[in-house]
Amino acid sequence: MSTQASPKAGLVVVTVAEDLMTASIHLRDPAHAAGLEVHEVSAALSAEGVVVDDAVRKRIEEFIRLSPSGQPSPEGFVAAKGLPTSNGQSEAFVWDPDLQSRQAEWQSDAPVNYYALNSIITVEKDAVLGTLTPLVPSRPGRNVKGEPVDPTVEPEPLVIGDTIRRCPDDPSRLISNLAGKVLQKGQHLSIEEVLLVSGDVNFAIGNIDSTTAVHVNGSVMDRFEVRSRRSITVGGEIEAAVVAAGEDVVVRNGIISRNVGSVAAGGRIVAKFCSEAVLTCAGDLAVISQLLNCRVRTDGELQAEQASIIGGHVYARLGGRVGVLGSDAGIPTRVFLGVRPNALVEIVTIDDRIQRTRDVIQGIRHTVQPLLDNLKRLTPTQREKATELMFKAEEAQAQVESEGERREQILEAAGGNGNPRLIVSTLIQSGVTISLGTRVTVFREELKGPVSIEQRKIRNVTELVAVNTLTGSVQILTSQKMPLDVLNEQYEPLSALNPPIRRDA
User: Fold this and answer.
1) 438 — phi, psi (to 5°)?
2) What is d(CA 348, CA 350) in angstroms, rounded to the nearest whole number?
3) Are 476 and 463 in contact (CB under 8 A)?
4) Is the per-residue pLDDT at 133 higher than 70?
5) Would you give the DSSP letter of residue 432?
6) Could you tell me whether strands 12-16 and 2-5 are parallel, antiparallel, or unpaired per DSSP bridges?
7) What is the pLDDT of residues 267-320, one digit of tens each?
8) DSSP-based three-state secondary structure for 142
9) CB 54 within 8 A of CB 39
10) Rounded-to-integer distance, Cα 456 and Cα 411, Å
11) DSSP 501
């Protein structure tokens, strides 16, 4: 910010904003305001490099009218304004109303939009996909000194691949060149070929193993298998079947496995409800209404803000959100957060090996040091022995470093980001057990939400606490540090569940 008096008597003070987009004026001595002329104020502005045009002169005239002799002049009176930039608007794709209505049918009464349109809607060849809103170019601005100001964003056209064409009669309309699923990534629009099953996966269709995405309009029936290296979308239900995708698995209705089938995804799993299901995913698990007696392992978050989690074992590496945890019947419900117990066991085992190796290194150095202190007095045999011991110490140190790197790899793969927490919006019922790290708490009576179950240091002691998310009050939960072998034994129902590797990993 620069402030400088007008060269004529220093009566007018000009203040130019740091971004050079406004210039304000006021009078240093209002007693001498009588007879102030427009050209005198203009001269003060010009001295600061401000461009004085007709609009600025009109503002100066207004300033003079508002500044009678002897009265304080308006503070921060803006005499000049720059022309702001316009960032314009990139070319945008708008879905065809018919496709949007099909999405609404999928969405049904779901309280949140779990289903992205390009995950659940397939189109036929030559179908109308939607329209384009035109690109609006950016417009440069100008500051009060007349200098150009470049836009911060440059609009981009929509890039369409050869799987899509523009309508000859109306270039703003887009038409599909093949049947498949519409994908939009930034300003790139294309159609991904899919294997489309118009009805159920049953004896008429058989098992499916596809390199492309799979879209099932109906359900996946008992004992059948659907596998894809890409995504799998099911318009009905997944029964006691095996479903595995390299990317997402999206189910319009429920997953009802009766502890027979399984669903695995290298990305997310999304469903309205899950009952007696085995679920593993490298991404998030999103459930709308209920998770009943399931075995779940998600390396992402558990997204069940309005759902009830009743019974079963659930592992959520990054924590999550739940509506109700447990049931009024006290059905045992177990939730694990953060580093997996079996990974903790492996880390502790590595720590033990590292400590034993360090003890060996210390013993070697304790033996060799007296020899090194008297190196000139050693016999050739003693020197050879000292050299051999030092070589063993170096090998052992390399082993320690290798074990340390392995430990960090396991911790990075198995741990959460920061301090994972489970936010329960409504209620935690009696019979719920929550494990975070090596600390475990069992709820013997209900706890009303909204609360966040997390780990905190209380008087230098790590505790499990319930934080009221409205008031911020903290309640220390009765918890204990569980021996790793016991904790891992309780995690056993989930230990064999390994989500597939992400396709892009």
Assistant:
1) -95, 0
2) 5
3) yes
4) yes
5) E
6) antiparallel
7) 999 999 999 999 999 999 999 999 999 999 998 999 999 999 999 999 998 999
8) strand
9) no
10) 20
11) P
**Nearest Cα to Cα of residue 255 among 284, 282, 293, 283:** 293
Q: Say how far apart CA 196 and CA 231 lie, in whole Å.
A: 12
Provide the token pair at 123. Answer: 């189109």
Collect all residues with Cβ–Cβ distance below 8 Å to 65 and sequence separation of at least 6: none
DSSP at 490: H
**Which token pair is 298?**
């998600």
The string of DSSP letters for 111-127 reads SS--S-HHHH-EE-TT-
**Per-residue pLDDT tens digits for 362-399:** 888 787 777 777 767 777 887 778 778 888 888 888 88
DSSP 3-state assignment of 58? helix
Closest Cα to residue 143, out of 240, 1, 19?
Answer: 19
CA distance 18 to 74: 20
* Per-residue pLDDT tens over the stretch 31-60: 777 778 898 899 999 999 999 999 999 999
Q: Could you tell me if 425 and 451 are in contact, meaning their C-beta atoms sit under 8 angstroms apart?
A: no
Q: Which residues contact 292 (CB under 8 A, 6 or more apart)?
A: 273, 274, 275, 276, 308, 310, 311, 312
pTM of model > 0.85: no
Buried/exposed code over 121-136 (b: 16+ C-beta within 10 A; e: otherwise): bbbeeebebbbbeeee
Residue 425 tokens, joined: 């919006």
Helix, strand or coil, per DSSP, at residue 227: strand
DSSP designation for 28:
S
For residue 279, the one-letter residue type is L
Place of tokens 């100008």: 142
Q: Whose CA is closest to 118, among 133, 132, 99?
A: 99
Structure tokens given for 497: 């569940």
Closest CA to 73 of 38, 7, 29: 29
Q: Among 72-81, 237-246, 401-410, whose mean pLDDT is lowest? A: 401-410
